[in-house]
Amino acid sequence: MYAKIRGMTETQDPVGLALVNIGVVFGAIWTSALTDRVHVSSVMSICSVRAASAVFLFWGLLASLPMLCLFSLLYRLTAGAFSANYTGIAQRVKDNDDAADTGTILEFLAASRGIGAVALGPLREALLHTQQWQGQAKLGYRTSYWPLIVFTGTTAAAGGASWVLIRIPDFRKQSLSFSRCIEML
User: Fold this and answer.
1) Residue 1 vs residue 30, higher pLDDT
2) Are 82 and 159 in contact (CB under 8 A)?
3) Closest CA to 151 of 59, 44, 27, 50
């Protein structure tokens, strides 16, 4: 829908879709390789900052079709590959709690992503109905998509909180083991 508003024709749609998919593939490879070498909280923060930057700079200031393609590629390189962090997260949990089951950890991560996607669907729809600036300018912030741009960028930036939280000594001391969390459920 947004691509059509920006002037993408039906023959150009497959190009945009290809860029999105290419971004996810290379982003997953890059993220997986980085997770093997760097602490997963740092990788998540890098992905979060890059995704937020892509949203705020390229989607928000979008004025042309080539910029939309660039945004699609850059955003999916980071945000689309975020699930490549799951194995790194599972490994860190296993390092802290030998009784934790890797399969269960991955199931919880996948389920939480699905729940988040379903829960945010109505919110995104409501954000799209904000017609405050529609048609008044060419930039992404001046379309009916501006609340969605701000929301997406803000939530992407919030993903970097893991890097901050892991560095707070009291937070690490008070965190529960994975096994204890499962017992509480």
Assistant:
1) 30
2) yes
3) 59
- 30/184 Cα distance (integer angstroms): 36
Residues 6+ apart with CB under 8 A from 102: 90, 94
Tell me the C-alpha distance between 42 and 5, whole Å. Answer: 36
Is pTM beyond 0.85? Reply is no
The structure tokens listed for 85 are 């962090």
Let me know: does 78 contact 27? Beta carbons within 8 Å. yes
Helical H segments across the chain, by residue range: 2-5, 13-37, 40-53, 65-78, 86-96, 102-128, 146-158, 161-165, 169-174, 178-184
Query: CB–CB of 144/131 below 8 Å?
Result: yes
For residue 83, give every residue at least 6 positions away whose Cβ sits within 8 Å of its Cβ, in sequence order, or none: 28, 109, 110, 113
What tens digit of pLDDT does each residue of 22-79 get? 888 888 898 888 888 888 888 888 888 888 988 898 888 877 777 877 888 888 888 8
Which pLDDT does position 22 carry in this prediction?
Answer: 83
